[in-house]
Amino acid sequence: AAAGNDGNSTTFAPTGLFYPASYDALVLSVGATNIGDIKASFSNYNASVDICAPGESIVAQSGTDSGTSFASPIVAGVVGLVRAQYPAWNEKQARARVLATADNIYSLAGNTAFTGSLGAGRVNALRALTDPLIAMNTESYTFTTSQRNYLFAGMTSDLVVTVRNHLNAVSNLQLTLTTDSPNLTILDGTAVLGAINANTSKNNASDVLRLKVAQGVRANTPAILKLTYQEGAFSYSENIRILLNPGRADNNEVSLAIDDDGNLGVTNNFFAKINGFQWQNETLFTEAGLVLATNATKVSNTVRSDAGLFDNTFTINRPNIETTQGTLLTTSADYEDITNNSDRIGVSVLQNTYSWNEPAVNKSVVVEYKIKNVAGGNISNLYAGVFTNWDIGNPNTNFADWDGVNVLGYVQESGVNPWYAGITCLTERDTLLSSQKLQYYAFDNTLNSIKIDDSFTKTEKFNAISGGIAKRTAGGGLGTDVANILGARMPNIALGQTRTLTFAYVVGTSLNDLKAQAIAIRARYKQAKTSPTPAVTNITACTNASALIKPTGGSQFNFYAEEPLTENTAILHTGNSLTLNNITLNQTIWVACVDSVFASVAVPLQITLLPHKTTFTQPNDSLNLAKSQEMLFTSTATGATSWAWTITRTAGVANADVTFMGGTSATVATPNVKFNRNGFYTLKLVTRTAQGCKDSLTTSLFVYTDFTTAIEDFLLENAKVYPNPAHDFCHVSIPNLNEKITLSLFEESGKLVKNLAYQNAPEKPYRLALTALPTGVYLLQVAVGQARWTQKIIIN
């Protein structure tokens, strides 16, 4: 087959190689040379070219003509001669023989720039018929340390090549591996295969080749490995085309080719397995990608723009990584819109694809986007979705429709193909079911208000992804070329915050089959991405204390004051723990783990207060040392297991002016205290429970010495102060006493604030003004001669 007349190398072009010449199986791709064995200026050259033949100024029916179409028949003629000379040979032997006997033309000055891209050289009919019968080629190859025979970034791998010896036996075959790829390093490039019998195969498993892939190589990067076989004077080289970091979710019945910059369903004809979204060897689309927008100007995407052109506003932070765990194949890439996008939004994207090799979900592949606000300030509304340009069967007879119940935009062909395919949103079915949050638009590619076959502007992309469920169907009548975009509005993304939006591509043989697949993959994804149920322990706490709630079974949790039965339930806090301060009530805190996309079930945690209150009794607010020096204090604190008494005279030292009597001490519940000096005393009791709960109570006591007791007893029995608590005034009533009275009012600290005298009228209470005095506890002393009577007053 002719290699093509574009005059360039299409090896690394996005559109791929020239076909049918570039098919691997039993096709010889033929380039053209001129009369001096130099590559003809028009001839394509690439790693897929197998051999060359004269193709310039070839005698033809109308004179002379040029092209690879004239070189190809010359090779076909040589193959015919070989088949005639050796009729027992099969096609593989004939092919190997023609390649093995070609003349090496790379040493010619005009061909040095095309080394490795002109195949085995220029065909030689005489050598094909007369050279010693040696011919071999690579039958298969395996990267022994690679999953699915692919090479990934940073990987070191052994290479085992199986060589087919098509003709006579060889005794000492040598194998050499070289490459011109900047992303590959050959660590061991030689191997000895030794003797190989005629028409048999042998590998180099006992003497492996070894190579290493560079870190950071992009997804789907092509590379050429050159294998050279040598046996004495015989030498033959051939190329192996490989992809480094291939992006391919192909773990079940469907496969999705993936780049590491937001492109989906990519086509790379350099490596035929990487080709669009496929099911049963049929390609359903080759153009899809992520679209992010905040307005008609700020649009980051990788999808089409003008006719034949594509936007490319994402920069790769980390190329594809592929992992396999059980039935799950995962590919992961990381990119952002900061570097290449002048109208950047300010986000990074961690893109994961998941495909399960399980019967219930074997016709679906999941694409998950973790979108993080890294430089966008507070993003009030981010519109995010996936654009897909569908081509099922005949692309001009496709219909698009919308299933709101399953959040599924789907496409079918109107012809004989019964297949259905679509994209469904997995993360937002419950929370974004309303049209205000879900976004969907079905395109008739050549019709309607948003027409994408000529250009697809930023404004059109924004309008399509921000209008709610704007256009449900496309392809009326007999159908047309259709596309769709499915996404969601994600409000209020704070700087540093990450939101997850996930889709799945699904296929089915009927609409019901398609819907069943959408339902099944939603359930499977939720099962895989539901956070583990947290483990919590009920807490007993002291009143007014703090409590630390630190669940296990996860790392990040939502804490609620009530059971989160709806998405609108207020979240108290999100983090790995929650501290509650000054607890005064029994309460229930609900805890849900949010380590993954979906929160776990919320589990209740009970916080129960331990009952504890410090109380004690004292016989009086004053103590006359002339009558008694001791006073018994009795603690009635609930649940107390320890007591600490401090009895402090104003300006004194705690417990310095008292003596604990009868074997009691400052740490017993009921101490008997002897007071050694007059003055105002502050009494404080601190109690603790076995669980560590602490409470305290403080009172005061006025201690004095007065040996005149008769009148004092009279005052004790008859004097009254009211109201108490008081505000602006209080009355002092001393019936049946016609004496001069002295009133002294002390602050609790012992400071004298009022001192006055009056003639008591037995039938008329004395009005004591308290205006302008601060609120607090005071002691009022009533003096009649040497007699003293003291009463505590509270001013409020």
Q: Can you tell me about this structure?
A:
The protein has 796 residues and is mainly β. It is elongated and about 155 Å long. The N and C termini lie far apart (108 Å). The model is unreliable at 429-436 (pLDDT under 50).
Search tags:
796 residues; 6 helices; 43% strand; 54 strands; elongated; mainly beta; eight-stranded antiparallel sheet; ten-stranded mixed sheet; 9% helix
In short:
The chain has 796 residues and is mostly beta strands.
Indicate the topology.
Blueprint: E1 30-33, E2 51-54, E3 58-60, E4 63-65, H1 68-85, H2 91-100, H3 125-130, E5 136-143, E6 156-165, E7 170-179, E8 184-188, E9 190-196, E10 200-203, E11 209-213, E12 221-231, E13 234-244, E14 248-249, E15 254-257, E16 263-264, E17 277-279, E18 282-293, E19 299-301, E20 315-325, E21 328-336, E22 347-356, E23 364-373, E24 379-390, E25 398-403, E26 408-413, E27 420-425, E28 438-444, H4 458-466, E29 469-471, E30 482-493, E31 498-508, H5 511-529, E32 539-542, E33 547-549, E34 557-560, E35 573-575, E36 578-580, E37 587-593, E38 603-610, E39 616-617, E40 622-624, E41 630-632, E42 634-635, E43 640-649, E44 658-661, E45 672-675, E46 679-689, E47 694-704, H6 710-718, E48 720-722, E49 729-733, E50 740-747, E51 752-759, E52 766-769, E53 776-784, E54 787-795
